[in-house]
């Protein structure tokens, strides 16, 4: 199945010139371990590493299961450093007892795992915090504007004693995530609730109805999602009776509005490269789901950012690769059931569970305690809120 999926993706999925797919180091040691790594039957006898290659691209070209590359490296000690493969290196893919790696010239930089530069244009600067209390916030804008942008100033409350020159990210509370435990009724639910300009959640009829019909045993707050709007530099603090600090917006980001919060600028918010690997822990079915699609309503595709209902507390770290699946629906068997009976009146136990449907693969690039963010790297169908996350090698 995965071979057909990969072939379809290569033939049909749009790819930017610099974004080649993930997971590539595996091919460097795959000859003697073709069965374990599922080397593609149409592989050549050798491959010359080219400038611009990424490890995902190389492995995706030759392997059916490229995320097995860490185990393959451990079985091939003759290759000294898998992260120092250079353009010009000739990699043997012949079936021999040992893999031969013929070194090429060392005039170019080595091929890394998945460089940040390859995926950064698609990332959304999102973060999760436990509370909004205490965060400085935009209380007004220059000339009483509704929105502020680069070169304009915003007035900030909550920066008492701040010195000019300090830099901040202007972030907007977008969502509140909750884990609703419904064991005994049907299944757990991960709620993504939109927030208003004050950071308060807006009551939704669907959420209220589902909570009444299926009451929860426990509801766990997961966190508030913040999306970066802009950056700014403090030009003046609260002086001479002025009760708000002045922040000069100095980046071509999103528009700023009253109610946006401030957090300190991070020197390096992302890893410089990502080493793709399967999850370190197996979670129960239904525990890891797509909670939201950044900048979308409910649906995304290749190069979109998705929020996952698990983080470091579930053993997820940057580079973790998941397969994304549409959860199989339960349908009435019309052959053995009265055709005139409405499906909603048939109990769950009397319905037939359909198989889950594969949608694509996603790689985690930013991890928090209970939430992580992943980039959809490839897909054969849209990724939607509520889809299941599994091991990348899951057969169904």
- Total beta strands: 23
What string, H for helix and E for strand, traces the elements in order? HHEHHEEEHEEEEEHEEEEEEEEEEEEEE
Principal-axes geometry comes out as flat
Radius of gyration: 25 Å
Strand content: 25-35%
Unreliable stretches covering 5 or more consecutive residues: 1-37, 70-77, 95-99
- Report the total helices: 6
List the helices and strands and how they pair.
Layout: H1 2-12, H2 34-37, E1 46-48, H3 55-62, H4 69-74, E2 90-92, E3 101-102, E4 114-115, H5 116-119, E5 126-129, E6 137-141, E7 153-157, E8 167-181, E9 189-194, H6 205-213, E10 218-236, E11 245-249, E12 261-264, E13 273-274, E14 290-293, E15 299-300, E16 305-308, E17 321-326, E18 330-332, E19 351-353, E20 357-367, E21 372-379, E22 383-384, E23 388-390
Antiparallel strand pairs: 1-2, 2-3, 4-13, 5-10, 6-7, 7-11, 8-9, 8-10, 8-12, 10-11, 14-16, 15-22, 16-21, 17-20, 17-23, 18-19, 20-21
């Amino acid at each position: 199945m995965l071979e057909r999926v990969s072939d379809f993706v290569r033939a049909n999925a749009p790819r930017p010139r610099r974004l080649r797919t993930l997971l590539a180091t595996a091919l460097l040691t795959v000859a003697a371990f073709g069965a374990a790594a599922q080397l593609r039957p149409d592989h050549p006898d050798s491959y010359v590493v080219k400038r611009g290659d990424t490890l995902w691209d190389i492995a995706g070209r030759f392997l059916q299961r490229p995320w097995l590359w860490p185990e393959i490296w451990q079985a091939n000690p003759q290759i000294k450093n898998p992260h120092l493969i250079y353009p010009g290196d000739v990699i043997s893919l012949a079936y021999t007892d040992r893999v031969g790696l013929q070194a090429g010239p060392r005039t170019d930089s080595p091929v890394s795992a998945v460089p940040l530069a390859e995926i950064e244009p698609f990332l959304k600067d999102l973060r999760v915090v436990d509370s909004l209390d205490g965060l400085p916030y935009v209380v007004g804008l220059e000339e009483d504007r509704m929105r502020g942008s680069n070169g304009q100033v915003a007035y900030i409350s909550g920066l008492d004693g701040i010195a000019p020159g300090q830099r901040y990210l202007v972030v907007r509370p977008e969502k509140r995530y909750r884990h609703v435990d419904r064991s005994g009724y049907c299944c757990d639910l991960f709620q993504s609730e939109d927030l208003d300009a004050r950071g308060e959640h807006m009551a939704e009829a669907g959420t209220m109805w589902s909570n009444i019909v299926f009451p929860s045993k426990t509801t766990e707050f997961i966190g508030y999602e913040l999306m970066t709007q802009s950056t700014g530099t403090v030009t003046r603090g609260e002086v001479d009776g002025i009760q708000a600090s002045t922040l000069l917006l100095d980046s071509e980001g999103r528009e700023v509005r009253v109610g946006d919060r401030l957090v300190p600028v991070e020197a390096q918010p992302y890893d410089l490269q990502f080493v793709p690997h399967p999850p370190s822990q197996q979670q129960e079915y239904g525990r890891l789901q797509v909670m939201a699609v950044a900048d979308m309503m409910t649906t995304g595709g290749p190069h979109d950012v998705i929020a996952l209902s698990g983080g470091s507390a579930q053993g997820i770290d940057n580079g973790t690769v998941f397969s994304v699946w549409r959860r199989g629906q339960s349908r009435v068997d019309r052959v053995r059931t009265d055709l005139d009976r409405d499906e909603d009146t048939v109990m769950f136990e009397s319905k037939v569970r359909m198989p889950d449907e594969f949608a694509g693969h996603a790689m985690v690039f930013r991890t928090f305690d209970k939430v992580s963010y992943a980039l959809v790297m490839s897909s054969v169908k849209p990724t939607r809120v509520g889809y299941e996350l599994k091991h990348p090698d899951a057969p169904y």
